[in-house]
Amino acid sequence: MSAKRTIATTIAFGLAAASAVAGAWFGASYIETSSRAVVAGALDAAGLDWAEVDTDGLQLILSGTAPDEPSRFRAITRAGAIVDPGRIIDAMEVEASRPVTAPRFSLEILRNDADVSVIGLVPANGGPELLSSLLARAGRAMPLEVTNMVETADYAVPPGWEESLRFAMSALDQLPRAKVSVDAGRVVVTAVADSDEERITLERAITRDKPADIDLSLNIGAPRPVITPFTLRFVMPPDGAPRFEACAVDSEQARTRVLDAAVAAGFAGEADCVIALGVPSAGWSVAAAEGIAALNNLGGGALTLSDADVSLIASEGTDQPAFDTVVAELSAALPDLFVLSAVLPEATQVDGTGEAETGTPEFVATLAPEGQVQLRGRLYDEAQQAAVVSYGRALFGSSNTYIATRQDTSLPRGWPARVLAGMDALSRLENGSVIVQPDLVVLRGVTGNTRAEAEISGLLSDKLGAEANFRVEVRYDAELDPLLNIPSPAECADRLNTILVEHKLSFAPGEAIIEEAGDEQLGSLKDALDECPNTVFEIGGHTDSQGREDTNLALSIARADAVRNALIGLGVAPSQLIANGYGESQPIADNDTEEGREANRRITFTLFDRRTGTAEVGDAPSAADGAAPDAAVPDAADQEAPPHDGAAADHPPDTTPTGGATE
């Protein structure tokens, strides 16, 4: 009985123990599952779905990669609000932090005369000091009142920042009213100029100074010019294409109307019709279009509008009835206020010398490129001669005026006014001539002013009257335009020689082979030559006095040829370069010392006189000087190397070093 009771008790305890273990296991499993589910749901609801939740008994394991440290901390905090924080094991990682991006450094600079405002962000390392230094430099001509609202940031200076800032301040120094925006590698300039000429000058100056690796956006505005008299002149010559000698309009619509009428009359070029102030009537473009159509119906001649005066000059030989019909139709078509003067000129002959004893009387003034003016032809009496020479000296200078006129008491009324108007027009040219006749004024020449033809047409129309018959045959030469800042031939020669003084061309000893170190100098020489495309230069080779004279001469010729050929290979026109050698004949230093011999071994550039075929010290003549470049300079493709003072084939370079090599 006792044994049975013992067995029963043992079984009861065993069952109780098993039940306890099973209950504990199921309880722990439930807690793990429920804790994992609740915490995972809470993390997902909080946007922390990157976190992974696992359990190990009562321990809650958080894993996964947090995007940053605050997100990791939020996950721990969120889980700790659901389960005991002591049960949480942090197995999370944090994503590697990204480097902090540097801010965008930029400046906005506003200038209104002496008042300057600067706002923006600059690098702390030298940024404020550089800005202050550049502002001080910009204020040398006019002290500036600077409002500085610039902040700094301690980050690396971005590439191109300092260069952009220096260029921007250089531009600001030239612009009294401007807004300049600066970024690393980019500058934006918005400004206002006082005139269109000033706008062109500023644009070219700023563009020329721009560093190669800086992006520039340039917008300079200018007010409309005031033109008085308001002038339009359209010419249909018998031996040429129709053209505008002057074209002033008051709006884009007016320009379109005028150009449409010109195209219908056979005009096919580009017209510089200036939108300007000073129009005498809103019907200006209508009057111009009707006048051009009338001129086309006549078959040729010249139409001039000067304020409200309309002048229609037919070509010589125009049929009289046709002329009368066109004039009547134009007179009826012109808007109110405009007054028409129509002239059918008789045939005239232009002698152009002022020396003819018979025929149409003439006065001729000739302006040379050097500035001298010769006055020839007929004047009424000594008083007129004195007035003309006095006016000439006022226009051209006392020492430049030469008079060789003769008296003629049969000259028509108004002759002095025509002569003085012609001289005034001639003074607007660089060189040329004016021929004055009783019924015709002819002006020919060269100018560096793109507006010269329009200005001269307006001047002659104003001073001679609307019905005046005149011809303006003016050629624009860009090399004479001061707004383009094209260097003179002498300035080009100076620049070429300066390049060679600063960085001497090197040759192999005793040979005419340019060493590789000379590539940079050749590139600089090519750039300088590109700025003077119409000027011819002689490349001179020189040696020291060591070695035989004939050998040194041949060596100098060969080296000059080598430089010429190298420059032609870089794209310089062959017609622009003449090679010559002088050997030891033109030393510039003592040949008894090594320093002197080194100085004498050189290459030089000299202006070449196309008229005499020799190098000269002064300015070489150009097309503006009256030379005929087409005749003087052969086509680049046809020109061969010119002869030298000694034939290179007869005197080959000595391969033995002579001491005359440029080293």
From TrEMBL:
State if Nucleotide-binding is listed as a keyword. Answer: no
Biased composition range(s): Low complexity: 619-640, 654-663
Task: Output the CDD domains linked to this UniProt entry.
Answer: OmpA_C-like
Out of the domains of life, which is the source?
A: Bacteria
* Record-annotated membrane-spanning stretches: none
UniProt biased composition (Basic and acidic residues): 641-653
| Keyword entries, A-Z | Membrane
The segment(s) forming the OmpA-like domain are: 494-611
Annotated PROSITE patterns: OMPA_2
Q: Which GO terms describe its cellular component?
A: membrane
Offer one Pfam family short name for this entry. Answer: OmpA
Task: Note the InterPro entries from the entry.
Answer: Bact_OuterMem_StrucFunc, OmpA-like, OmpA-like_sf
Region listing for Disordered, in residue ranges: 612-663
Identify this protein by name: OmpA-OmpF porin, OOP family
Q: Which species is this UniProt entry from?
A: Jannaschia helgolandensis
